[in-house]
């Protein structure tokens, strides 16, 4: 009886401590603060990562030429990897047809000079902005997945609309459509603004954006079907990462739930304006 009397309080203490500290720190995770939009509560990175682990896709938005945003993306990848999760990185920055080059890079069989040439063939932002992400993936053997489609096709859709594509061009695309409704137009105006696109038909521009969203979602789903043990971290421009972008297309295609992390951007995704209809977390700088 005496042993039981000692044991019961010990069990109670363990349960209480477990309730107070349900999320032990992740090895190597920073103490970064994020705003969880579902309840407007500030949480630490090592807390948020346990929520991210519960889904198959995590999207991290960016402005392409903002170095800080790529540092955020690397923090998210590193935190998930350090939990023991099998992570892959899906990238807007590479076309699906360039997958062989990405595989060679991760395997370590391609020189940096050769990989940079492939990078600039796919993307035009300066290499140093993304270099740390690519090097980390290579070091940890984390697969990188090209998600994008031909620039020529998206450029043509932006200029002339989806209907201008020929049958051969459409065969080169995933089986997606470009149905643009008023809610999507409102989202694009808010997320990206219409400035910078003067002279371009706004509906065509929206069709190009939704083509990107749908194609990247489709390629992500195909990758996960082939690699169900993986969790994909998608790196994409803010206009694609918001919930009405790629996440909406993912849900329509597969039912996959995801988490969306956006950088704090005054006037667009900030404490005052962002809701859980836009994203799940804001990265507070």
**Named CATH architecture:** 3-Layer(aba) Sandwich
Query: What's the N-to-C terminus distance?
Result: 56 Å
Number of domains in the coordinates? 1
Q: Could you say what the CATH topology is called?
A: Rossmann fold
Mean pLDDT: 87
Determine Rg (CA atoms, Å).
21 Å
Q: Order of SSEs, N→C?
A: HEEHEHEHHHEHHHHEHHEE
Helix run count: 12
What is the strand tally?
8
Strand order of the largest sheet: 2-1-8-7-3-6-4-5
Protein name: Haem-binding uptake Tiki superfamily ChaN domain-containing protein
Domain Haem-binding uptake Tiki superfamily ChaN: 51-250
InterPro entries: Cofac_haem-bd_dom
Organism: Syntrophobacter fumaroxidans (strain DSM 10017 / MPOB)
Provide a descriptive summary of the structure in words.
Residues 51-250 form the Haem-binding uptake Tiki superfamily ChaN domain. InterPro entries: Cofac_haem-bd_dom. It holds the Pfam family Cofac_haem_bdg. This is Haem-binding uptake Tiki superfamily ChaN domain-containing protein. This protein is of the alpha/beta class. The chain has one domain: Rossmann fold. Helices cover 48% and strands 15% of the residues. It has 12 helices and 8 strands. Strands 2-1-8-7-3-6-4-5 form an 8-stranded mixed β-sheet, with helices on both faces. Strand 1 (33-36) and strand 2 form a beta hairpin. Helix 7 runs antiparallel to helix 10 (202-226). The longest helix is centred in the C-terminal third of the chain and has 25 residues, at 202-226.
Question: How would you summarize what this structure contains?
Answer:
The protein contains twelve helices and eight strands.
């Amino acid at each position: 009886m005496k042993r039981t009397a000692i044991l019961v309080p010990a069990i109670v203490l363990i349960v209480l401590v477990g309730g107070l500290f349900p999320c032990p720190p992740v090895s190597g995770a920073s103490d970064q603060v994020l705003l969880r939009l579902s309840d407007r509560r500030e949480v630490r990175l090592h807390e948020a990562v346990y929520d991210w682990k519960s889904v198959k896709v995590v999207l991290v938005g960016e402005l392409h030429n903002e170095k800080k945003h790529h540092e955020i993306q690397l923090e998210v990848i590193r935190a998930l990897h350090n939990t023991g999760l099998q992570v892959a990185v899906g990238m807007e920055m590479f076309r699906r047809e360039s997958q062989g080059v990405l595989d060679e890079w991760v395997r370590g069989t391609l020189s940096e000079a050769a990989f940079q040439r492939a990078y600039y063939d796919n993307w035009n932002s300066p290499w140093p902005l993304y270099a740390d992400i690519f090097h980390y993936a290579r070091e940890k053997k984390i697969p990188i997945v090209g998600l994008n489609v031909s620039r020529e096709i998206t450029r043509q859709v932006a200029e002339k609309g989806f209907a201008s594509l020929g049958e051969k061009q459409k065969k080169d695309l995933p089986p997606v459509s470009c149905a643009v409704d008023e809610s999507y137009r409102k989202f694009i105006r808010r997320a990206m603004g219409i400035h910078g696109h003067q002279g371009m038909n706004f509906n065509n521009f929206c069709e190009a954006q939704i083509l990107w969203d749908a194609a990247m979602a489709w390629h992500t789903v195909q990758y996960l079907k082939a690699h169900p043990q993986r969790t994909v971290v998608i790196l994409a421009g803010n206009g694609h990462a918001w919930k009405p972008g790629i996440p909406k297309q993912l849900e329509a295609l597969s039912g996959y739930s995801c988490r969306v992390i956006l950088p704090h951007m005054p006037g667009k995704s900030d404490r005052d304006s962002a809701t859980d209809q836009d994203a799940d977390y804001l990265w507070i700088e």
